[in-house]
Design a protein that fits this description.
The chain is about 50% helix and about 15% strand. The protein is α/β, with parallel strands linked by helices and about 475 residues long. The longest helix is centred in the middle third of the chain and has 22 residues. The radius of gyration is 26 Å and the shape is globular.
């Protein structure tokens, strides 16, 4: 991909780092020489020394290192979705899948039929739904984060937001905890199952978000110690111990969402001058009333098609679309979870649509605060990676760098080989479309696709955390 975005410091070890790329050097050397003094793999490569993660300084056993490894190895979601839904859906229906899943698929495909106006509204809904916290209170928090240079204040705000997340997720976490206990009971000896059933009955499932003290105290002082005694008695160190670990993690999150702790955290943030300048006059004790007016479930409400899509994928994973398609659905879900990971620093949107009779699937990754390659005084710009597949044409990649204060943009478009003789027409059409919307191109590069554009190549900030603490669970 041409470097029209002027990224001057590519992360070490990536394919666009020409200096370290053996394909671009004139030095002739033996790759992967065999060292008789070491135990090596059959191809002569050591497991530890040659990996991409080692070059990036990443711990392969850490959460973030595992995330980077999955980015490098995971199949493209656009291609998966295209193969399954744009090409293979009809074949699955003809193959005799279950009537329930067939109905789910039919309803989903009907939902994604749109015209131009409906597409715009659908895109707005997804974008707004992806931002969980909205409103004046959270806008003020964002302003403090953008303006302060204090690392301690930023860390305090992030911890505060984590507590808010755990508080608003309280009912969901409580359901998970009850589900954890139910699953644990199924792995226990029959004589001990009643013990867990009694524990489940003592949970107050009607507890309001933030009112966690009673349930958390019960779980920490009675339920978890009782399960620990069971492990010690039976020496069962298999699945049941792993499930208790999940229960403990959910309990910690549930307790972290206690409203009293939230009020204390807000009061400590008021000790920072940069925070106090924005929130002066607000009594920490009024925080419960402030948070009551915030909608913490926006993402769950905005996209009805998302719920249907996930239900359909779940059915496919269970094998209801045929065993031959089960792995495809699993790969699809893994790709979705990867793009929604907490380590992904950019906004991700999915758009499976049938627009004016033309079926296509599109993905967007958006960074509204990109500073790479910005000229002096230009400020932050919006960087967008758009991937889409048009039925009977193929895969497209579009990279856009758009100035927030300038009505011009840089664009790179990679098109399928079938359109090679249409490049001039595409170039002219793009310029006309932008001109009609008052936008001019500072640069426009079109290129026949050779391979998909990597997300990490467009957004090198994904690798910025490689020097921070990597937590292993």
């Amino acid at each position: 991909m041409p470097n029209i975005l002027r990224v001057t410091t590519p992360p070490a070890g990536l394919d666009n780092n020409v200096k370290n790329n053996p394909l671009t050097t004139n030095e002739k050397q033996i790759q992967n020489p065999v060292d008789p003094g070491k135990i090596v793999r059959p191809d002569g490569r050591g497991d530890a020394g040659d990996s991409q993660q080692t070059k990036l300084g990443l711990n392969a056993q850490s959460n973030f290192g595992n995330f980077i490894q999955q980015i490098n190895e995971a199949p493209q979601l656009t291609q998966l979705f295209s193969t399954l839904f744009l090409q293979g859906m009809g074949n699955m229906v003809e193959a005799g899948i279950g009537p329930d899943l067939a109905e789910e698929i039919a309803k989903f495909m009907e939902m994604v039929k749109m015209n131009d106006a409906q597409l715009l509204e659908h895109l707005k809904d997804q974008a707004s739904g992806a931002v969980r916290y909205t409103g004046t209170f959270y806008d003020m928090l964002r302003q403090v984060m953008n303006e302060t240079q204090s690392v301690e204040l930023k860390a305090g705000i992030l911890d505060f937001l984590k507590q808010i997340n755990d508080m608003s997720s309280g009912p969901h976490l409580l359901e998970n905890i009850r589900g954890n206990l139910d699953t644990i009971s199924k792995y226990m000896m029959r004589s001990d199952r009643e013990m867990v059933r009694q524990l489940m009955e003592q949970l107050d499932m009607k507890a309001l978000p933030g009112d966690t003290r009673q349930n958390a105290a019960f779980l920490k002082k009675e339920a978890i110690p009782m399960l620990a005694e069971y492990i010690a008695k039976t020496r069962d160190f298999g699945t049941i111990r792993d499930l208790i670990g999940v229960l403990t993690s959910n309990t910690a999150r549930y307790e972290n969402g206690n409203m009293d702790k939230l009020i204390d955290s807000f009061a400590r943030l008021m000790d920072f001058q940069g925070f106090r300048a924005k929130f002066h006059g607000i009594d920490p004790k009024t925080l419960p009333q402030i948070l009551q007016h915030a909608d913490h479930e926006t993402a769950a409400k905005e996209s009805a098609w998302t719920e249907r899509f996930l239900h359909m994928v779940e059915s496919g994973i269970k094998g209801e679309a045929g065993l031959e398609n089960k792995q495809v659905f699993q790969n699809l879900m893994n790709a979705v979870l990867l793009n929604e990971s907490v380590y992904m620093p950019v906004l991700h949107l999915m758009l499976p649509i049938e627009l004016n009779g033309q079926t296509m699937f599109s993905e967007m990754w958006i960074d509204p605060d990109d500073e790479s390659g910005a000229a002096d005084g230009e400020g932050r710009r919006t960087k967008l990676l758009l991937k889409f597949d048009i039925k009977d044409l193929g895969f497209f990649d579009v990279v856009i760098l758009y100035g927030n204060e300038r009505m011009d943009m840089d664009m790179y478009l990679s098109y399928p080989e079938i359109l090679e003789d249409k490049e001039k027409e595409i170039h002219s059409a793009l310029e006309s479309i932008m001109a009609n919307n008052g936008i001019s191109f500072r640069s426009l590069v079109l290129e026949k696709a050779s391979e998909p554009v990597a997300i990490s190549q467009v957004f090198p900030k994904i690798f910025e955390r490689k020097n921070s603490i990597n937590v292993t669970i």
